[in-house]
Amino acid sequence: MIGRRDFLKAFGAGVALCAGRAAGAQDADAPARAEPCVVDMMRGRERYLIDLRSAEGLRIAAYLLRDVEYGNLIGTPEFDLLRLAAWAQAYMAAYGRYTVLDIHSGLRTREHNAHLEKAAINSLHIPRTGNRFSAMDVDPYGIDREYFGQLVATTKFGGVGWYATHVHFDCRAIPAYWRA
Ligand SMILES: [Zn+2]
């Protein structure tokens, strides 16, 4: 958990990073432009600006994406999934549309998934070896869900599903798109 003071500090750092002004960007080995590595996510009353370069950030992401309904199991979200979320957020911010990703679902135990109507049997929400999973359902606060899904889909990074209350996206080899 991070306190309000740390949160604000992280927020300042995140803004600098997204603008490509990270201190590290001056290193000879660093890429010319900083890759988006900060994601603003909330679940219920908890909201964090997560720095994906830090172990603490990855822990917070895993915590927010736990299976809240079935035993609060905390797994390991695929890094590419988090990076995709950070990229989409930074892209929108660059055009003046800031959003917070309201998490509806991340990891889902097989038991949980089996109890859901219409959930895919081999859903990417279900953890594999090492409790790794590669899907999340989010409501991009203040942003049209259709637009958000289209933006993620342009990356051809995985699957995108549009639902009445959220957008599902995941990482997989062959992109797939669907509407509920
Ligand atoms: Zn989903």
From TrEMBL:
Superkingdom of this protein's organism: Bacteria
InterPro entries the record matches: Peptidase_M15A_C, TAT_signal, Zn_M74/Hedgehog-like
Peptidase M15A C-terminal domain: residues covered: 81-169
Protein name as annotated: Peptidase M15A C-terminal domain-containing protein
Organism field: Noviherbaspirillum pedocola
